[in-house]
Amino acid sequence: MSTHPGVELLRQLLADSGLTTGTLLERRAAMEAGAAGSPAPAGTTVTVGELGGRPVEWIKPDDLDAATDNTTATDNTTATDNTDPRATPVVLHLHGGGYCMGGHDTHRAFAGRMALDARARVAVPDYRLAPEHPFPAAIDDAVAAYRDLVATGHDPAKLAISGDSAGGGLAVATLLSLRDAGDPMPAAAVLISPWADLTQSAECYERLDGLDPLLTKDGLDEMAEAYLAGTDPRDPRASPLFAPSLKGLPPLCIEVGDQELLLDDATGLAALARRGGIDVSLTVWPDLTHDFQIFPAEIIPESDQSIAAISRFLWKHLN
Fold it and tell me: What is the pTM of this model?
């Protein structure tokens, strides 16, 4: 077991949350219920709109010099300045949840923390979930969201794609789809604990069994089956770790814990990217487990440190 006190506290909290037990739909409901107490951080404004034909939530620092365009403030606050919002950096964040759960509510606090640190607007699209909408619905929605940003005048040099867990794998799948279609690449991408191999066949599943309080191999197998709906799990659009090459992708920032079941997914992606000549920043955090950045710093102090490192990476490539 981890010697990190915050991880052990998470283990206790998650055991009573319903997030790791029950059916997929029951776990989805538990994840949404748990998010009710995690609003956007102070100093941010949350607005809603549409991107690529799907609902989207925008989060921006209140003092960011850009108005939010074509959206409606959820807190009855509207931006009043006339600065073109396309002039500021935008991060398109693809949320985690095993392609079967998660959404605006579950990732609002994390997206707000990243917006504040990176001095950027963060867009969290509500992509379609399995099992109701299996592969490749999530990819189609993410690609459409990015293309909508570009079509409405956002400079790709000011755009980044990020994702956590399944959203991290989805971010790479989105980049590969855009690359293969000849779309302009964003300036950078951030992958947090990316789920990039839906076969669950890596060596670390045996070595790290029981250490990760959030993930189990059986749970990942179940979500993979629901998402794939018969698709070969080695399809690079589902499992980017099986892509022949990542050549042509933008610089990558990859963050992962050394006691999580997706450790080999993250390190394998970094190695594959480097073989393709991609600039990769890989950080493996000791004694930490899956997606620790989404948890409050009061429980996992390193979550703030990781978000700060991610934000420095984004600032470097978006400004």
Answer: 0.92
Which of 290, 302, 311, 317 is catalytic? The answer is 290
Q: DSSP strand E in the chain: where?
A: 44-51, 54-61, 72-73, 90-94, 121-125, 159-164, 188-192, 252-257, 280-285
User: CATH homologous superfamily of domain 5-318?
Assistant: Alpha/Beta hydrolase fold, catalytic domain (3.40.50.1820)
Residues 6+ apart with CB under 8 A from 135: 99, 227, 228, 229, 231, 235, 237, 238
Residues 163, 91: Cα–Cα separation, whole Å: 10
Q: Which pair of structure tokens corresponds to residue 164?
A: 């956590």
Predicted confidence (pLDDT) at residue 23 exceeds the cutoff of 60: yes
- Please pick, among 2, 57, 162, 165, the residue that the annotation labels catalytic: 165
Residue 295 DSSP code? S
290 is a catalytic site residue: yes
C-beta atoms surrounding 100 within 10 Å:
22
User: Among this protein's residues, is 201 annotated catalytic?
Assistant: no
- Catalytic pick among 95, 260, 306, 317: 260
More confidently predicted of 30 and 53: 53
pLDDT average, residue stretch 26-30: 81
192: β partners: 164, 255
Give the C-alpha separation, 56 to 142, whole Å: 11
Query: By the 8 A CB rule, do 224 and 200 touch?
Result: yes
Active site residue 260: yes
Q: What is the Cα Rg of the chain in Å? A: 18
pLDDT tens figures, 88-120? 999 999 999 999 999 888 899 999 999 999 999
Domain ranges of the chain: 5-318
Determine the 3-state secondary structure of 189 from DSSP.
strand
> Please, are residues 168 and 256 in contact by the beta-carbon 8 Å criterion?
no
Query: pLDDT digits over 57-67, tens only?
Result: 999 999 986 44
